[in-house]
């Protein structure tokens, strides 16, 4: 049983490393488009510290895959909409 668990853990680690090594901007995983930190900073016009603050304050969800932090595009869009200020027309 221990050998099975060890093999399963090794396989999961290998899967994650394959996904991370093949990372391309805007990759789709499990039906959702994911962005890396640089892409999100560029979209939001913020630096990495502000992006971390959004994570720490739970304003922006994220996944940690193979040591890389990835953000669902729909979560980023929701954050943009949350802070959107319309025109005064």
Walkthrough of the structure:
There is one protein chain. By secondary structure, the protein is an alpha+beta fold. It has one domain (2-82): Multidrug-efflux Transporter Regulator, Chain: A, Domain 2. The chain is 53% helix and 17% strand. The protein has four helices and four strands. The protein has helices spanning 2-21, 37-44, 48-56, 73-82, and strands at residues 28-29, 32-36, 63-65, 68-72. The chain has a four-stranded antiparallel sheet. It is elongated and about 65 Å long. The mean pLDDT is 81.
Q: For the record, give the distance between the C-alpha atoms at the N and C termini, rounded to a whole number.
A: 67 Å
Shape category: elongated
Count of folded domains? 1
Q: Low-confidence parts lasting 5 or more residues at pLDDT below 50?
A: none
Question: What's the total count of β strands?
Answer: 4
- CATH architecture, by name, is Orthogonal Bundle
* Mean model confidence by pLDDT: 81
What is the CATH C level class, in words? Answer: Mainly Alpha
Helix content: 40-55%
Q: Tell me the CATH topology.
A: Multidrug-efflux Transporter Regulator, Chain: A, Domain 2
| Largest sheet geometry | 4 strands, antiparallel
Order of strands, main sheet, comes to 1-2-4-3
What share of the residues does DSSP label as strand, in percent? 15-25%
H/E element sequence: HEEHHEEH
Q: How many helices?
A: 4
Round the Cα radius of gyration to an integer and report it.
Answer: 17 Å
Class by SSE composition = alpha+beta
């Amino acid at each position: 049983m221990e050998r099975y668990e060890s093999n399963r853990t090794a396989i999961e680690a290998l899967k994650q490393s394959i996904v991370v090594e093949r990372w391309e901007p805007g990759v789709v995983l499990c039906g959702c488009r994911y962005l890396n930190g640089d892409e999100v900073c560029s979209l939001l016009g913020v630096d990495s510290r502000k992006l971390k603050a959004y994570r720490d304050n739970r304003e922006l969800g994220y996944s940690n895959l193979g040591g890389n932090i990835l953000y669902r595009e729909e979560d980023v869009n929701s954050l943009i909409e949350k802070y959107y200020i319309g025109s005064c027309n």
